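S.,

Sequence below, as promised.
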Amino acid sequence: MKTIKTLNIKLTILIILISTTNLYAQNAFELAGYFTGGGTINFPTKENMKYIEGISTVKPLGFIKGTAGLSLNGVLQTGFYLDLKGTFSGMSFLLDTSLSYVDTRSSAIITQPVGPTNYATVITKTSYFSIGTGALIKLHFFKNFSWGIGGGVYITPLDYSLDFERISADEATNNTASITIPSPTKFIAYAKTTFEYNIFFTGNLTMRLGGYFSFELPNMFLSNSDITPGTLSPYINAGALIGVGYLFRYY
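The prediction came back faster than expected:
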C-alpha cells in the first residue's frame, strides 16, 4: 500500500514537471521590424495658428481646421511571447521603439494688415523627426490574427520646419515663408492600437500585414504659457503596416 502511495506521488510530480516543461517550451523571445505609412489629421487652435513674426502677428478669425498630413515610421518591437492554448493562441509583451517623420497641416481664415482686403487664408505645414519609445501588448487569436494596444512618448530632439503660405482674398498680397524654429514640444504622449494578419513561412517566421491608429497629445507636458505658434496641436495618425517577425523559442 505504501509502495502504491509513493508511486502515485512520483507520478504526480512527473506530470507536473512535464506540464511545466511543455509550458515554457512554447514561450519565446519575439523580435519584429515594421515599416508603417499613413496620414495625419490635427486639431489646431487659434494659438497654434498665429502668424509668425515678420509675416503677421494677428490671430485667426475662425474656420480653423486640420488638413491631411503625412506619417512615415520605422518600428522595432522586442519582448516576450507567451504561448497559450485555444482561441487565444498567445500574448506578446513588447518594447515598442520607432523613428518617425511626421508633418501636420492646418488652414485658417485670418485678418491681414495690408492689401485691399482685410482677410486671407493661411496654410501651415509643420514637419519634424522623432524617436518613440513605449509598451505594446498584443493578443494573438485564431493563430493568424493579432490585436495590439499600448502607448508611450515621442521625443523630438531636432528643430521643426514650418512652412507658411498666405493666400489673400484678392490674390494681390500672396506670400510664402519657410523657417526653422527650436522645438517647443520635446515630448509627445501617444496611445495606439494595431491590427495584424500573420502569414507563416515557418513555425517561427511570419510576415505581418495590417493597420494602425494612434492619437498624439503634444501639449500634455506644457502649460498654456508655453504654447507658441510653433507648438504642435493634437492629431490622429492612421495607416498601413508591413513587417517581419521571428520567435526565438527556448526550451
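The first strand starts at residue 28 and ends at 42.

Coffee later?
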